[in-house]
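S1.2 Input.
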Amino acid sequence: MGKENVYLNGRIIPADQAAISISDAGFLHGASCFTTMLAHNGVVFRLDRHLERLMDTVRLLSLRPDATPEALRGATYNLLSANELKEARLRITLTPGSMPIGRAGGAEEGPAPTTVVTASRLPEYPNSWYQQGISVTVTSFKQSRGDPTFGCKTGCYFTRVLARQEAAAKGAEEAIWYTAENYLAESCFCNVFLVLKGKVCTPPRDTPVLPGIVRAAVIELCGELKIDCDEETPLTVREMLAAEEIFLTSSTTGVRPVVHVERHPVGDEQPGQVTRIIMSAYKELVDKECS
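S1.3 Output.
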């Protein structure tokens, strides 16, 4: 692989030459949305679903980018080729572009929006994450049903970064979030699943939680595998502490078993049978769709 390139506003250029305006709304106010994707064998896993979710966020938050799904699809694959990558972590970021200093701007004002696509080599995640499982903490931060950014991937992720840093300081890989009403939501960058008496449970979309692409894939796999799955019933700390198994899902890290929540052991402190079945089925699914 040669020098890393990025896609910026219609052009593929060397990453060290890419720049955005200091008045870009994404930089100034976190007014941006993004999606992070996995490429396997040179194919982006469920790219169309990533783009659909991204455009839903654009409409919900009125971010006004000009990129179309077709243009983003082409940019993504052209960038993979330019960076000579088959196994990659990709990210698309959209912002409304520069804002006149001192003015809020409006839908009819301002220059062109900003579109950025990055593609880097997929990290070699530790085998221990999948074979022995990971530990998580519970953050004191809360998700609010009234905050429009929850349930969306936006540039307003600083509190999630802080929670992840707190978890790392305790030797954990992730932090679990609850709502102000004390319902289980998600982790900083992943969706959360519990296994309760053999049933796979995950917080409802309107908790709110991110409609994760892998979350949806796992729910589909449960149907195919004849595993009972509940994505409609709110979950509390009682269910989390009673869970025989817990696992997290995200686009780049896939399905990761959780064996400790703070000092609380999950099950027998090993990846459980249901989790292992889903991990294997998910790997097969990615191999199949990215053949």
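S1.4 Remarks. DSSP finds eight helices and 15 strands in the chain.
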